[in-house]
Amino acid sequence: MCRPDHFDVTYAINPWMDTSRPVDRDLALRQWETLRAAYEAKGHRVEVVDGVVGLPDMVFAANGGFAVGDRAMAATFAHVERQPEGDAYHAWFTAAGFTSTTRAVAVNEGEGDLLRVGNLILAGHGFRSSTQAHHEVREFFGLPVISLELVDPRFYHLDTALCVLDDHNVAYYPAAFAPQAQRLLEQLFPDAVIATDADAEVLGLNAVSDGRHVFLTDAATGMHAALRERGYEPVGIDLGELLKAGGSVKCCTLELHP
Ligand code: ARG
């Protein structure tokens, strides 16, 4: 995770961002601390990456890269405003002791668009990461990659439209995907939790699951109920200030898979 010490909305690269709406950074910091504390309370270790002055979106650590085991690929951002974050996250992966680190060549926004479910990588494209990036990821990590096209600009990253619940199942919002991607998801995950419009619109799918606890916005009440029904334990977090930049729980979290 990256503390939102330099968080702000100074440019608009997704429909959630409105530079005329002020951001309360102290509130953002308090909300972020709540998320960190919630992870730690459930037994998860949190590493903190230093934010960088002038990189207001760096709090969205999920976009910094993608890591499996001791291999890590740092991101290459689509928008010039976020491009320097790629080097910062690359430096962090190297310092953290990953034995094989690389910097993506093609546009690749890390876990924003790459989500591991079991031994499969689901990969979004359409707004940020390129399909070229999907090939690069397949080569570097040696895992199968399933490309899924996103079509709704509000759900510009895969992690705004789909959440991995455990090694076998996901929750997602079908309308965010192109018809072919919808069919693929139906085949791969016949028991998926299907999110309602209301849950998707508060970024209820931008969630992190450890297979039992699912950390997500407390505003996604339908998701909370659906998850409970399936035996998961939802943990509600309010990240309202960070939502002003188009991010929620998952965006703030880069998962280091064993
Ligand atoms: N303002 C950021 C952007 O548009 C938000 C990134 C959210 N991160 C995510 N993993 N979806 O790039």
From TrEMBL:
MF annotations from Gene Ontology: amino acid binding; dimethylargininase activity
InterPro entries for this protein: DDAH-like
Active site: H157 (proton donor), C251 (nucleophile)
Keyword Cell division part of the UniProt annotation: no
Family: Belongs to the DDAH family.
Identification of the protein by name: N-dimethylarginine dimethylaminohydrolase
Domain of life: Bacteria
PANTHER family (UniProt xref): DIMETHYLARGININASE, DIMETHYLARGININE DIMETHYLAMINOHYDROLASE
Pfam families with a match to the protein in the record: DDAH_eukar (PF19420)
GO biological process: arginine metabolic process; citrulline metabolic process; positive regulation of nitric oxide biosynthetic process
Keywords on record: Hydrolase
